[in-house]
Amino acid sequence: MTFELTAKDIHSKARAGEITTAHGTIQTPIFMPVGTAGTVKAVHQRELTNDIQAQIILGNTYHLYLRPGLEVLEQAGGLHKFNGWDQPILTDSGGYQVYSLSGTRKIVEEGVKFKSHIDGSTHFFSPEGVMDIQRTIGADIMMAFDECTPYPCEYNYAKKSLDMTHRWLQRCCDRFDSTEGKYGYDQTLFPIVQGSTYKDLRIQSAETIASFNREGNAIGGLSVGEPAEMMYEFTELVCDILPADKPRYLMGVGTPANILENIALGVDMFDCVLPTRNARNGMLFTSQGIINIRNERWKNDFSPIDETVGGYASTFYSKAYLRHLVHSGEMLGSQISSVHNLTFYLWLVKQAREHIIAGDYLAWKDKMVKQVMQRL
Amino acid sequence: MTFELTAKDIHSKARAGEITTAHGTIQTPIFMPVGTAGTVKAVHQRELTNDIQAQIILGNTYHLYLRPGLEVLEQAGGLHKFNGWDQPILTDSGGYQVYSLSGTRKIVEEGVKFKSHIDGSTHFFSPEGVMDIQRTIGADIMMAFDECTPYPCEYNYAKKSLDMTHRWLQRCCDRFDSTEGKYGYDQTLFPIVQGSTYKDLRIQSAETIASFNREGNAIGGLSVGEPAEMMYEFTELVCDILPADKPRYLMGVGTPANILENIALGVDMFDCVLPTRNARNGMLFTSQGIINIRNERWKNDFSPIDETVGGYASTFYSKAYLRHLVHSGEMLGSQISSVHNLTFYLWLVKQAREHIIAGDYLAWKDKMVKQVMQRL
């Protein structure tokens, strides 16, 4: 994997760059649609390419490990071959799901024992095991196995957890560096900064992670319930320490405003379930603001959902028709809303990139945050 | 509306023809995907056109009347404008849903009083009212308001009901002929043969319906639980009476075998929820036979769903991937299955048409019925 910086904003820390992987290049800043179980919910693969113009999607190690399972994925020749998405894929480490979905889990030095949310069966994830699983999935970008602490989190727990996350990282790197991709192409491994909402821990973690000198770095444990201002404070703190010549990935973020603000602080990559999950509840993000499509206001609005962002779903269907589908509980309602919201997210980061290159990112960002976050 | 016969099979009563409506032509025999509430469930409009190659879709008067309602449909300029489907649309009369969905309904000479399955509110459908509703929906082909009797049905009830259906038909025609389309294009009205499973009633009804001399005729009240052989017997009986120079529409039919057999008896048009409803349960109709995609057998089958029938969903995705999606309860599983099953149905009637024109329909049909109905 390589990363090239294309442009840096003068008035903020925003950067435009290009990541090159075995499955193609990614122009940053970028948003990665979440494809939990090998599918971005309600979205066809060609819609990802043609309408949404996604450049990389995310897969969840926890979900893929349970279903379809490693045997099927390996026989298919990896996730790209299995789901037909031949552009870059990033997989998380499964840690986050193990902590949040699994009712009973036990974290020890060796790893995490947990129960499947599907059938209650017992499983064990270790740093080494999770590397092996991600080798089998075949993601272009693999993530280290860490502990993502909740918010708020006691200082002592956060410190103990962070030290273990750093020891786990060493084990991840040892396993990663002593193995090879299974399908004839290179993969890379991103470590993750943790440290909850404690400055000294975040600084210590960012310095430790930077010292591993991997090809890219991630920031985890934010956007877990803390105020947005606090998130921005820690993003900036950490970005300033992480090397400038490597991509920075802020995990699980966020709203359109969160994304634009964090880009200004030096973040290059984002992922979040928000655009797809909220789509399924009838909440649309558009270039003009936020729409609750269930509202009476849209009943007779026969204008397209959002002509500005382009793509079939956003320009072909009207608000009134989509409102009808959502009210009627029709699957097509979720399909249109999901494709639209992702189209908007990808449009937004593309716009951001252009304004970074044009040199007016900060002014555009301040205007845009207000515009896209207003309720219509 | 016009109908031209293109070819007639020598060895059976199968015909190939062409129906021309204000929204384009339809090559018969044809299958019409069911778009209940203005959406073919889980299918995008461009998938209907490009992948499935649908030529006409069905809308349900009952559902559209309740949601989005007539005010929205009229403001939109009719259903075509509302959902963006600019090819032909046929609407049923709402009768079938009123009888089957509505818990409490009362049928009197004037019409039917029923309760909405959504909110329990009381409504009244009369032959005249249903004509007005279908004028507002703007379907190219409207259906008469009839009573569809259940199976089995007492002779006396069937006879009484049939007489009323014929009186209602006169009222439908009177209203239809004294009104005009609301959106500047012509609509047409098909009457419906009823008579349950009684030969004398079916003959009487077919003769009555034929005497109305409308532009096309429908056969209702079959495929409601009676044995397939009985359905074929009555289809043939009725088709022989209905005029040969008008299209014949067999309502609510059926399996691939049902369709091929009824084509051989002189039917030109079909609709059924089977391909989409069964798709959502993981049952696939393919050119090679019937697949329960949940079965272990498909777990590692990375071949396309059905390359023979063409279209994106059927050729891009593998059986193993689709099985995974269905097992995981992913919406994309229903989407792929629905598009595939409809692609197969449209492929099947297109093949039927070609074999009618080529003159070898009967032999092809006998082979094909066995092939597509076998369980793989």
UniProtKB/TrEMBL annotation, chains A, B:
Which Enzyme Commission numbers does its entry carry? 2.4.2.29
Q: Which GO terms describe its cellular component?
A: cytosol
Q: Which UniProt keywords apply?
A: Glycosyltransferase, Queuosine biosynthesis, Transferase, tRNA processing
According to its UniProt record, which residues of this chain constitute the active site?
92 (proton acceptor), 271 (nucleophile)
Q: Which Pfam families match?
A: TGT
Superkingdom of the organism of origin: Bacteria
* Signal peptide limits: none
| GO biological process terms on file | tRNA queuosine(34) biosynthetic process
GO molecular function terms noted in the UniProt entry: tRNA-guanosine(34) queuine transglycosylase activity
Query: Where on this chain does substrate bind?
Result: 92-96, 146, 194, 221
Function description: Catalyzes the base-exchange of a guanine (G) residue with the queuine precursor 7-aminomethyl-7-deazaguanine (PreQ1) at position 34 (anticodon wobble position) in tRNAs with GU(N) anticodons (tRNA-Asp, -Asn, -His and -Tyr). Catalysis occurs through a double-displacement mechanism. The nucleophile active site attacks the C1' of nucleotide 34 to detach the guanine base from the RNA, forming a covalent enzyme-RNA intermediate. The proton acceptor active site deprotonates the incoming PreQ1, allowing a nucleophilic attack on the C1' of the ribose to form the product.
Q: Which family does it belong to?
A: Belongs to the queuine tRNA-ribosyltransferase family.
**Name of the protein in its database record:** Queuine tRNA-ribosyltransferase
- Origin organism is Adhaeribacter aerolatus
